[in-house]
């Protein structure tokens, strides 16, 4: 049996009583290093439900190899309640298999899995990942086969819910506008013939497509159980706006990455809880809001390009200049009133940080406030850096802050990339500590390592030496600096 299976037993406590196992598990789904079992015979005596728990924690290739190599495990894949089928697992680094061949293997595997009379269990969640091929006719044939197999499995009661990730064989950099339109047209046809699947779809990832606005909107409406939507490098053919008016939608999480859509209008998504929008190319606000009563988290991240003029944060939050916070806190308060967690990441290390408190003042319910600075010498004087706007550091002073404002609900402050030699870092932490009567702890983290920065000289952070406190004396000195002038029992924690 494959060695990777042994690592999964670390998650099954009862297995450790039956088998002597030495396991070292590293982060990641299948990156395991371990010593093999001393007694495979006793291991094979474990009941099916424990072995199934092990199989659910390894990749599809490992599951298949195990079922072929061991008679004890042969029937187990047919009993899995969570099945993850990813075409990329057949095109691993050392494989010469083409995308066409990998798709053929995937379809054959699905046919065996869903068509076997020995398949007794119900698949509660089918996670399926496949790609659209360069050859349109071949790609459509695979799409129709996949749609038919999944729909038949759903109609027969073998599959209860589906998660789809649909990528493309051709890289984005090689895709023309025509390619992206063909991708979208193929997907529209795929969903038209896969009605049963659409009704059971809970998560959808789409990449490198160019839809008609009406087609994309109808596609999303047809997936009435959809809870998680991810659009990557997607655009529209006939409109600059995507209007999402879906009063019956169950969507809770939406992620938008590098989409060339001028504005996504969330007119009505009553269950939406979290929204992420990263890397947009237009100057106007990339989002606008209507009825979204459950929204709790909003993540925005995009470097300002030289051809962008930016927009006001209030324009975005109120639904409708740079994304630079001016004193518009009173206007923001209505939009940020219910936020309980506020994280500001990627702030350039040389910038003053007191402006972040404008947002904190405007969000009176925040309990966790986090700031993480960006310091990468590999980011300076590069061709990529030339695309973006010049960094601007507006000056702020502690005297500008309203001394009557307090962060009454704040309990935790996180600071990533902390450097005790940078005055702005100390000033921000002191300002928050003085104005947060319920603050219990301040967590300080070192800058994140970067291989590209290692050989480069950085005047702020030397490439070979971190300024983060290392020993107890240094930590004690920094803690005293931060607590100077306040008697509140705030715990300073060095992570």
Structure description:
This protein is an alpha/beta fold and 495 residues long. The chain has a domain at 337-495. It is 30% helix and 21% strand. The protein has 16 helices and 20 strands. The strands form five sheets. Strands 3-4-5-6-8-11-13-15 form an eight-stranded parallel sheet. β19 (441-445), α16 and β20 form a beta-alpha-beta unit. α6 packs parallel to α7 (136-155) and α7 (136-155) packs parallel to α8 (177-192). The longest helix is centred in the N-terminal third of the chain and has 20 residues, at 136-155. The protein is globular and about 70 Å long. It starts with a helix and ends with a strand. The relative contact order is 0.05. Residues 1-39, 318-328, 385-389 and 460-464 have low confidence and may be disordered.
Give me the count of strands.
20
Computed CA radius of gyration, to the nearest angstrom: 26 Å
Strand content: 15-25%
- Mean pLDDT reading: 76
Q: What's the shape?
A: globular
Helix/strand class = alpha/beta
Strand arrangement within the widest β-sheet reads: 3-4-5-6-8-11-13-15
Discrete helix count: 16
Low-confidence stretches: 1-39, 318-328, 385-389, 460-464
As an assembly, this protein is single chain
Fraction of helical residues: 25-40%
Distance between the termini: 40 Å
Largest sheet: 8 strands, parallel
Write the SSE topology.
Layout: H1 4-8, H2 15-18, E1 22-25, E2 32-35, H3 40-44, H4 48-55, H5 60-69, E3 82-86, H6 99-115, E4 125-132, H7 136-155, E5 162-168, H8 177-192, H9 195-200, E6 201-207, E7 210-211, H10 213-222, E8 228-232, E9 235-236, E10 241-245, E11 253-257, E12 263-268, E13 274-278, E14 287-291, E15 297-301, H11 313-317, H12 329-336, E16 341-348, H13 356-361, E17 368-374, H14 383-387, E18 412-416, H15 423-435, E19 441-445, H16 472-483, E20 491-494
Parallel strand pairs: 3-4, 4-5, 5-6, 6-8, 7-9, 8-11, 10-12, 11-13, 12-14, 13-15, 16-17, 17-18, 18-19, 19-20
Antiparallel strand pairs: 1-2
